[in-house]
Amino acid sequence: MSPAARREQLIALGLAMVRDRPLEEVSIDAVAGAAGVSRALPFHYFESKQDFHVAIARAQADEMLACTAPDPTLDDPITMLTRSMSAFIDYVSENRKAYTAFMRGSSSADPAMREVFDQTRAVMAGRVIDHAPKLGISVTPVVEMTVLGWISFVEETTISWLTDPVITRDQLLTLITASLPALATVVATVS
Length: 191
Description:
Structural class: mainly alpha
Low-confidence stretches: none
Mean pLDDT: 90
Radius of gyration: 19 Å
Largest sheet: none
Shape: elongated
Number of helices: 9
Number of strands: 0
């Protein structure tokens, strides 16, 4: 197996494991065992267990961003947003343990892990900001700040829904998609 393929294999195994257990419980020994390699081999590809965990977080973020990418064939930004948020809810629902662990676990305080979260949020914010002009919204620092706040709202609301689903999935989708245009209305009065 090439070094790149082996590294990807180890990340994929770690990613599969984190779907069933908190990241902190994904050990190098378990991944090495699943790969059929010695315990020392993963350290050839990752500097430390923490480096391996960051690689898993980055892989999960990449998966989520890929499945929530806006459909460029759609002209209506609200339809585009609704489809992306629907995919987000589905992805998070299917990966609830991993997503919640990444967002709320002890590793979320780690600077390298925070960098992964911040980069992921920046891509999500960029997607929204890129489409703001189609809604007649000029991109300003206040708009950028509001979009980042909205992303935090979406994350926290979705985690809350996963923990205690007091509304249906469709109601959650409506809540998070309708909140962004509502915020745009408020931002217009502030800017």
